Description:
The strands form three sheets. Strands 3, 4, 5, 6, 7, 13, 14, 15, 16 and 17 form a ten-stranded mixed beta sheet that branches. It is built from 13 helices and 19 strands. By secondary structure, it is α/β, with parallel strands linked by helices. The protein has one domain: FAD/NAD(P)-binding domain (3-Layer(bba) Sandwich). The protein is 31% helix and 28% strand. It binds flavin-adenine dinucleotide. Flavin-adenine dinucleotide is lined by residues 18-24, 41-44, 48-51, 53-57, 59, 231-232, 259-261, 263, 282-284, 317-318, 358, 360-361, 383, 385, 387-391, 393.
Amino acid sequence: MSEVNVLKPNSDKPVAIIGAGIVGVSCAIHLQRLGKKVMLIDREGPGEGTSYGNAGVLACCSIVPVVTPGIMLKAPKMLFSQDGPLFLKWGYVPKLMKFLIPYLRASKAETVEHIAKNLTPLLADSVDEHFNVSEGSPARKWLKKSPYMFVYKSRAAYDADSFAWNLRKKHGFEWEVLEGDDIQKYEPSISRSYKCAVLLQEHGMISNPGEYVKDLAKTAISEGVEMRITGVNDIQQTERGVVLKTEDGDIIAEAAVIATGAWSAALAKGHGAKVPLETERGYHIVLEEPSVQPTMPIMDTTRKFVTTPMSNGLRLAGIVEFGGLTAPPSKGPFELLLRGVNALLPDCTYKSKQTWMGHRPATADSLPVIGRSPTSDDVYFGYGHHHVGLTAGPKTGRLLAEMVAGLQPNIDLHAYRANR
Ligand SMILES: Cc1cc2nc3c(=O)[nH]c(=O)nc-3n(C[C@H](O)[C@H](O)[C@H](O)COP(=O)(O)OP(=O)(O)OC[C@H]3O[C@@H](n4cnc5c(N)ncnc54)[C@H](O)[C@@H]3O)c2cc1C
């Protein structure tokens, strides 16, 4: 056994995990299992951030980023056509440029190949990681194995997506292409105007993401993790340990893990994190008491949203809007989701609806930041998971817990370093 692969001796100070979304809560559970004293800190409480409102898909195959070759030609249509899934708050554009330029540059084929190669180890076995982290927790009731379907208007539209599908094939994913009536054999409620579908087995879903994270946190707390509800304003590496400056005074920790999703840049900046981080605002609508409920998550590739059968209704989730962390939700994305469900599931009626907007943590190169700070020995990063943070959260949490505890994770983490 190598020297690094020995558990660090326990300290009387806790490891402080800041952010109780899927990443932070998973990290807390794994650190607790490794025998560490753990404190979980969140200004809102567990499962109230982006982990609350996502589409609930354990999207193992989502190794291809949003920006791919040709995005510069496609972006104007995505932004300006009536059913385009891209929105922009124009007043935010000057602030966005520092992110947008490297983000678009990362659409080159070789960069996208690098991203896919390095997302695969975080996503491919993610369903097993969810079963592992939820072992013994009531959270398990929200977790299901499920197929995942992508629907296209035509075979030609599917063929036009061949760059993404070829990358998935290269990384070991397999699927079945359905055409014509075969689509309705799986999901009778899908409109016959969708002529082609891709069906991937061995995926998963969470039928209530907010409650899932809360139940995981409850289990962690019942097993000894201390939960603090407060905001962290700053983190300082000192000789006494890591000092967290919170709204309720200082906390001294053995180590700190920054798992604050889209809000991580301010805390991570002082510790050598160089990758630009933005919020990709996303939206959902839950249709309550829907008249049709598909059996699996369905990705509509034309409007880029997912419908997922949830415990409280049918959730429509998706949209990318650039507009920062503080602006209120826009109306356009909600209208687009409703037009989308009318086209995809034309017979679907419902009693009432709930709406939500949240913040995907988007790095400029579409890879998360996972690992130890390059400048502060006891500060760790676990954020920036874009569209796949629910899927990759438990594995990220486990890798971080192993690093903090002094163990050597069994995958190469070089691509996720903060000063890349
Ligand atoms: C519409 C939409 C659909 C999506 N669908 C999917 C999907 O189907 N599958 C998938 O895998 N992913 C999906 N995602 C992405 C996924 O939800 C995120 O990547 C993931 O939830 C990020 O988790 P997190 O733990 O990093 O952050 P969060 O869940 O946002 O947690 C961060 C926490 O940090 C806290 N915090 C922030 N700053 C501070 C501070 N200074 N002090 C204390 N606490 C702080 C916040 O209160 C929050 O609770 C979707 C996202 C959106 C918006």
